[in-house]
Amino acid sequence: MAGGNQWVVAGDIGKRIRALRLALGWSQTQFGNAAGVRYDQVLAWEKGRACPPRGRLERLARQQVWPIEIFADGGPSPDAQWLSALRRADAAPLPASEAGLSSLGPLPTDEVLALALHDRPGLVRYLQALWGGDPRLPTRTKMELITVIERMAQGQGTPLPGSFADTLRAMVRERCI
Asked: Which domains does the chain show, CATH number per domain?
């Protein structure tokens, strides 16, 4: 199982990728876009003709806010039941129009908090769209915003899981957001 930096790519990684992709309702092209590869590479992974690099799987898991264990030997099978449980754990996501993702301007505080608590992938997408890897925006400023979001959630009596905040910070450091 995954633990810190010590984890092993599952021997059935192709089956896991296919199960995850189908559970998400994604095409091979959509999964490839998320992973930063072409659809034919996803096909090669699924058929067992190639093994995705561990680093690519780690980045994909961080970007999509998935636990890395789904790609690890001994981890849970990323099927529709697992995905449904993950979504229930994070609560129902807000529709993009309600979440304000269509505009690049800052969201009101209550909407940022709603994204942080109920649609973590939506919050990541929003931050990616808002910041867009802008090198002019200092990393420190981005880190401070993550701290502000954590404090807002704590103030509402629903603290963010530390692993989610850590994932956001790692994404900032790696310039994913």
From this structure: 13-89 (1.10.260.40), 91-173 (no CATH)
CB of 42 within 8 A of CB of 28? yes
Asked if 81 and 107 count as a contact pair (C-beta separation under 8 A), the reply is no
Phi, psi angles (nearest 5°) of residue 58? -65, -45
Q: Return the amino acid letter for 18.
A: R
> How far, CA to CA in Å, does 69 sit from each of 74, 118, 155?
8, 21, 31
Cβ atoms of 94 and 37 closer than 8 Å: no
What distance in Å separates the CA atoms of residue 107 and residue 91, rounded to the nearest whole number? 20
Over the stretch 28-73, which tens digit does the pLDDT of each residue have?
A: 998 998 888 999 999 999 999 999 998 888 888 877 777 777 888 8
Half-sphere exposure of 1 (CA within 13 A, CB side): 5
Q: Which tokens go with 7? A: 């984890």
Distance, in Å, from the CA atom of 10 to the CA atom of 88, rounded to the nearest integer, reads 25
pTM: 0.49
Between CA 150 and CA 137, with CA 107 as vertex, the angle to 5 degrees is 75
